Amino acid sequence: MVKAIRVHELGGPEALKWEDVEVGEPKEGEIRVKNKAIGLNFIDVYFRKGVYEAPSVPFIPGVEAVGVVTALGPGVTGREVGDLVAHAGRGMGAYVEEQILPANNVVPVPPSIDPIVAASCLAKGMTAQFLLHRCFKVEPGHTVLIHAAAGGVGSLLCQWANALGATVIGTVSTQEKAVQAKEDGCHHVIIYKEDDFVIRVNEITSGKGVEVVYDSVGKDTFEGSLACLKARGYMVSFGQSSERPDPVPLSALAAKSLFLTRPTLRHYATTREELLETAGEVFAKVASGLLRVRVNHTYALSQAAQAHAALENRRTSGSVVLIPDNVDQ
């Protein structure tokens, strides 16, 4: 038996229960991994609340973790007991001390990267990679608007977009987060509680608007985000921390011939080759220092409810990582 967080009934952070679970042995093509660090992502909140539907209930949340391989199932090649591996965005079940995973779903973690750093940045980094390079290709001279610029994905988006030569506008909720966003490459930071971000974007761009908006907030920012776009601009809605946006009539896009997409990581890492390439690029950017990973908060796995509450109430910045209680810190 190992310890895990499970959800029996959808709801608030109190729905996260600390329980004993059976793990079993790996079957054909599987490996067993002892987790060392688990990434907390907003998608975990969506599943806990029922915004996204889990395959079954009860379930173990979590889409990202780093750990050590402890056993190999029949037919597994290319992996060895003792390997440090990571997985992200290919199914739930990470909020657990040990888990069984398909061997093809994990990627090797370079020895230069600490497990906590890897767990904090793989899902978020791969998200930033496909958003900036494949969902909409950011190029020098573009102006981009990034909401939640001090969040886990937002921080990486700002740094990476800046490195690509874009002018970066970020929105945040507090002065403290504004300082971080500036450090992460934002040329202009808007504290949305003090200023109307639509008016400020219009001022910053001299009325031209931005090429692309990366919006993980949802309902509270969606209409304003559309208003910030220039003609033929791209609205990339990749999250809904403030609940689902209201329905959008096609006429709202026709006014400026806008593009609208709602992408998810799993559709941009569908093959083993895509997974290895995307994860490899993220780890390379982190190792080179181009991406600075901010692990601003760590919690014991048994304290996942407190971590969820802090994330939902916007009391966090950067990344949040859960550490299994049986791991020495």
From TrEMBL:
<keyword id="KW-0521">NADP</keyword>
<dbReference type="InterPro" id="IPR020843">
    <property type="entry name" value="ER"/>
</dbReference>
<dbReference type="InterPro" id="IPR011032">
    <property type="entry name" value="GroES-like_sf"/>
</dbReference>
<dbReference type="GO" id="GO:0016491">
    <property type="term" value="F:oxidoreductase activity"/>
</dbReference>
<dbReference type="InterPro" id="IPR013149">
    <property type="entry name" value="ADH-like_C"/>
</dbReference>
<dbReference type="InterPro" id="IPR036291">
    <property type="entry name" value="NAD(P)-bd_dom_sf"/>
</dbReference>
<dbReference type="Pfam" id="PF00107">
    <property type="entry name" value="ADH_zinc_N"/>
</dbReference>
<protein>
    <recommendedName>
        <fullName>Probable quinone oxidoreductase</fullName>
    </recommendedName>
</protein>
<keyword id="KW-0560">Oxidoreductase</keyword>
<dbReference type="InterPro" id="IPR013154">
    <property type="entry name" value="ADH-like_N"/>
</dbReference>
<dbReference type="InterPro" id="IPR047618">
    <property type="entry name" value="QOR-like"/>
</dbReference>
<dbReference type="Pfam" id="PF08240">
    <property type="entry name" value="ADH_N"/>
</dbReference>
<feature type="domain" description="Enoyl reductase (ER)">
    <location>
        <begin position="11"/>
        <end position="322"/>
    </location>
</feature>
